[in-house]
Structure formats: C-alpha cells, structure tokens
Design brief:
By secondary structure, this protein is mainly beta. 10% of the residues lie in helices and 42% in strands. It has two helices and 21 strands. The strands form five sheets. Strands 6, 9, 11, 12, 14 and 15 form a six-stranded antiparallel beta sheet that branches. A five-stranded mixed beta sheet has the order 2-21-20-4-18, with no helix packed on it. Strands 8-7-10-16-13 form a five-stranded antiparallel beta sheet, with no helix packed on it. It comes from Pedobacter chitinilyticus.
C-alpha cells in the first residue's frame, strides 16, 4: 500500500515539475514598445548635425534618413524608369559603295544568330541619331537613346548591318571598309548609372549570308570590321555583327533600402542620435522601434519631415 502511494506521488510530482518547466520555458508576452522622438529643429543646412532626442527604451531602434538607399518608403525595393545611352566610334578606311552600314536595335529578335532569324526580327534604324564617319578618320557618334525600341520584360539587341551590292550593279564600286570601336551602352536613372555593354564585353556574334567570304565581317580585340567580298564581287551580300541580349527594358530594379541600427536587444538605451545630410531637399526621417523575442515582435514608427537647405 505504501509503495503504491509513493509511486502515485512520484507521478504527481513529475507532472507538476513538467508544468513548471514548461511555464519557465515560455517567453513572456511581447509588450507594445514605448518610444518617441523629437528633432531640435525641422530646417537645417547641408552639413549641419541634425539632432534627434529619443525617449523610451524599446529592444530595437532603427533609423531611415530618407536618403537614397536609406529610405523607409523603399524597404521593399524600388523600380525606377531609366534612359539608355548608345555611343560608338566609326571609321571608313576605304571608300566604296554608299549607304552600306547601318546601326539598328531590336527587342523582338529571338536570339538565334542565323540570317533568317535576324531578318525576321523588327529592327529600329538608328543612323539618323548618330554621327557616322565618311572618310578615313575616327568619328565619335555622340550619344543616342534607344528607349523607343524597348519592350517591357524583353532584352534589347544592338546590331550593325553591312550590305554590299554586286559590283556590276553598283557603278563598279567595291564595298567600303568600315570599322567600329569604343562601343558603349549605358543606362541611367535619377539615382544611378550602369554600363550594360562595352566593346570588349558585348558578346558579339557574326551573321552573314551564305555567299560571304570568310573573315570579311569579323571581330578583333581592337575593332569590329566590315568589308565586301574580295573575290566573288558579282553577288549581293549581307553581314551583321550583333550584341548578346542586353537586359534592359526601360527600368532599373533596386534592392531594398536598409536601415541604420541605433539600438539592439540588450544594449543600453539611446537618448540622442545625430545625422548629417549632404544634399538639399525635403526628407522624411523615420525611426522604427520594436520589442522582440523568439515568439515575434511588435513595432511602432515615428516620422519627422526635415527641410535641408543649401
């Protein structure tokens, strides 16, 4: 009988101990953070130290100045419209047939580098936007936009087309000899610019008609070169050099803006914080305060609009 009671008591103690341990392991409920922030003024000059006075003692405090890369409005990232800037240098080493060389752009080329597929694409002519050489001297093209050739979610290709007529149909003129150097395709938004393709990194591909002689349209480490046939000049020929797909559709997608940490869990409370703005403008300074544990978090947001003058 005594043995039975001892076993029964042991089980009861075990249950109570388990309940106690479970209670101890459970996190305390997360409380709403108590937090406020004031600025000593709302108008400052560029280079001034903007001072914020903080009250409360939340577990975590983060700061967003409202500047690019540190703006709470873009914590999910941002997509911004952008412009394109195409430029190159050309040279005509040997005179010949006129109107042979064209610069074009396409956003519906399927990326299969055969003459049939190239000709099936829609190509926007760009010669009228560029300054091209007329003699044996290097000529910078200036900068041209190709945004009107873009299609949403599609890559763009830049192509150089060189056509030669049969000699007997071209006043006995042979093909002119064209060279292209200093190719550049840049994009820019209101906050950044980026090189998308250069002469040495554009992934060039040569496409020619079947009657073209070898190496008359070619890619070298120094230039792209276009020439008519050397021997079989009694036929019309067509040659292209085309970039790889340039991934640009008129917009730039940016990574999420990040906060600046002011206080972390376990660190001492912070009563003051300063920030210096380097550009004039109107900024929304945002402080995010949170209490957190392994169960989750609760946060509040405080915003202050600041005018930064030159």
């Amino acid at each position: 009988m005594v043995k039975f009671r001892m076993m029964k008591n042991t089980k009861i103690y075990a249950v109570l101990l388990g309940l106690c341990l479970a209670s101890c392991d459970k996190e305390k409920p997360i409380s709403e953070p108590t937090f406020d922030v004031k600025a000593t003024a709302t108008t400052y000059k560029v280079g001034d130290r903007v001072e914020f006075n903080l009250s409360g003692n939340p577990d975590i405090v983060s700061f967003y100045s409202g500047e690019v890369g540190n703006d709470y409005n873009y914590v999910q990232g941002r997509v911004m419209p952008a412009t394109s800037a195409l430029s190159l240098t050309t040279r005509v080493l040997a005179a010949g047939q006129p109107n042979q060389f064209e610069v074009l752009a396409s956003s519906d080329f399927n990326g299969i580098y055969t003459l049939e597929n190239v000709q099936a694409a829609t190509w926007v002519p760009l010669n009228s936007r560029l300054t091209l050489a007329t003699a044996n001297i290097e000529v910078s093209s200036g900068v041209a936009s190709v945004n009107d050739a873009l299609t949403k979610d599609k890559a763009i290709y830049i192509g150089f087309r060189y056509k030669t007529k049969a000699k007997q149909n071209a006043g006995n003129l042979l093909g002119a000899r064209w060279r292209v150097t200093n190719f550049s395709f840049l994009i820019a938004s209101a906050i950044s610019s980026e090189e998308k393709a250069l002469s040495g990194s554009a992934g060039w591909n040569v496409v020619t008609s079947s009657n073209y002689e070898t190496n008359r349209v070619r890619i070298t480490s120094a230039y792209l070169e276009f020439m008519g046939n050397a021997t079989n000049t009694s036929v019309d020929t067509e040659g292209w050099i085309i970039t790889y797909p340039i991934l640009f559709d008129g917009f730039i997608t940016y990574l999420p803006d990040k906060s600046k940490p002011i206080k972390s869990i376990g660190s001492q409370s912070v009563q003051n914080y300063t920030h210096i703005y380097q550009q004039p403008g109107t900024y929304k300074a945002t402080f995010v305060a949170a209490n957190a544990n392994t169960e989750g978090s609760k946060q509040i947001k405080k915003e202050i609009t600041l005018n930064i003058t030159p």
